[in-house]
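Summary for the steering committee. The consortium agreed at its last meeting that each partner would contribute one worked example illustrating the joint modelling workflow. Our contribution is presented below. We chose a case with several input lines so that the handling of multiple components could be demonstrated. No manual editing was applied between input and output; the record is shown as generated.
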Amino acid sequence: MKTPLLEIEDLCARVQDKEIIKGFNLTINAGEVHAIMGPNGAGKSTLSYVLCGKPGYEVTSGKVRFKGQDLLSMSVEERAREGLFLIMQYPVEIPGVPVTTFLKHAINAVRKHRQEPELDTPSFLKLIREESKKLGISADMLKRPVNVGFSGGEKKRLETLQLSILKPSFAILDEADSGLDIDALKVVADGVNAERSDSNAMLVITHYQRLLNYIVPDFVHIFADGHIVQSGGKELALELEESGYARFVKENN
Amino acid sequence: MSGLLQNIELPEANLPWLFALREKGREAFLRQGLPTAKTEAWKYTRPRDLQVDDFVMQTSPCHCSDECDCEHHSHSSLDDALPFDCYALHFDNGHLRHEHLPLPRGVQIMPLSDAFSFADDIKSRLGKTLNLDKYPFAALNTAYLNEGVYISIAKHTRLDKPLALVYHTHSCHDNLFFNLRNLIVVESGAQAELIEYHHYSGAEKSRYFANIVNEIFVGRDAVLSHYKLQDEAFKAVHIAFNGVKVKGGGAYRSFCLQKGANLARNETFVSLTEEGASTEVNAAYLMNGWATIDTTTDVEHLAPQTVSSQLVKGVVGGEAKGVFQGKIHIAPHAVKTEGHQLHKALLLTDTAEVDCKPELEIFADDVKCSHGAASGELDEEQLFYMRSRGIGEDEAKQLLIDAYLEDVLNTLPDTSVKQWFASKVK
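What follows is the complete predicted structure of the assembly.
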């Protein structure tokens, strides 16, 4: 018996006055990795922001259930504490807030919600050191302000570090490969793969097939004009790589 | 005329010079009256709006009855006010508490009223850092010259811990008005840290008016660090003027955090009188509700190779108003001087306001000067990023506010005093 983690029904959403998500349907069960592929401008990032509750992204109709609960009625932080996590395409820089301070606030907010005791400084530092080592994150990077002056690769490593310490039940990877060279991509993919389990799920958003060689999905969906136009197995991604998006986009116009 | 000026008999009226000085203050205040919207130096901060006229000068040390449950009657609990080791002088409702304070060699402290007769340099210093016709509240303060302390630090003395002036106000009766004048002399080669802490206890809504003037003389190659926390009751009025003269090679370093009162102004006028004198006038303000908090600075470079820097950061919420007026004046012969000023404010709500007036008067060539001002809001993208990691909205905002104030707090040396200030911006 499969347990649905995320159920999206007829979702429509807009940014300002522009309708971007138009009747989106998808159910993701525990243990599954889904990939969404689509051309630039199809609304892929909008979908991830809508799911996270970013201000300015307005849901006009439809339902989203996360672990059986109404996701859309939760605040941004409640969604995160319930186990929704977004690896952002362009993580923002936060001058003046050191990485360790930020991570400590985040992990303790999540632990508090799970009714687990807050981590004290020594156990927190131990955890961070262990996980950072696996991702090739230096001690110096942890002391710096969040993402300030980080290279594309360093930013994505920090996103992956957060994934590994916050242990979300559902992670969205929004163009996780953008700005990465092949070595950094492998490190990030290894970090993400290490978190895969039967109890959690992932949604990988990308417009290149390349990332899916490293994070192999169970299902691939083609996303165009605000909704899914075709679904299939991992071979669909390879097919796309050959034929391009034009065929799918045209069919819908 | 203003009810603030009453005929009160003050001690030591038999000293002709003191009597004359008080009269000069009284006349200067009568000539100017309270500042209005038309008074250029007060155009953003208008005391008249707050009807300060009905404040009443208190002459008796204790104003509370025995039935009163304000903390006036239990001094001891207030002694823990500062979490670091210091030489502390306490004021209760504007009156210096008379208690024995063991002091290291080279440090002399006495009530101002004793200093009138016993301090050799009092006549040559009192009133010499300020122009009575320019500062109406300092003129008013001069008319009431009596309360306060005289602090003198002898040549080459280095204080092992800070001196603290702790002002406890616990008015259980409305409209208390008090004037304080402190005279601080740091002689050549001496070094000291002075902490000023203004706070209240008891009724949060108590309304009082603290009018404070510090006159500070920093000798050759001497250093005075002056750190102030203004955390008055939210209906209080706090007007402070710091007049500072710095001699050659001397340094006056100040930081003032204002977070209390309904109307507050901390005004600092520093005169760098001889070659190599320097000053830092840094400040932060943190406000909510309907308060007006004003930081006004004026740095006068009167000699070559003098250096000044000012960093002022504010966080304004509610319907509050932050004011910064900063002036750098460089006299014609004051070449090779440097003056820098930066004011930045963070507005947390649409109804918060900040007014900023930088002024540069440069009459010399070969100087380095800069000034800048900026105001902004919390970054929505940063807030979203933190919230998307589970951090609550208020907690995320506080992290961003802490980050915003970090550079101005970092102007303080890395000690327990800095930790104390850092804990007060939460």
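Chain B is about 15% helix and 40% strand. Residues 379-426 of chain B form one domain.
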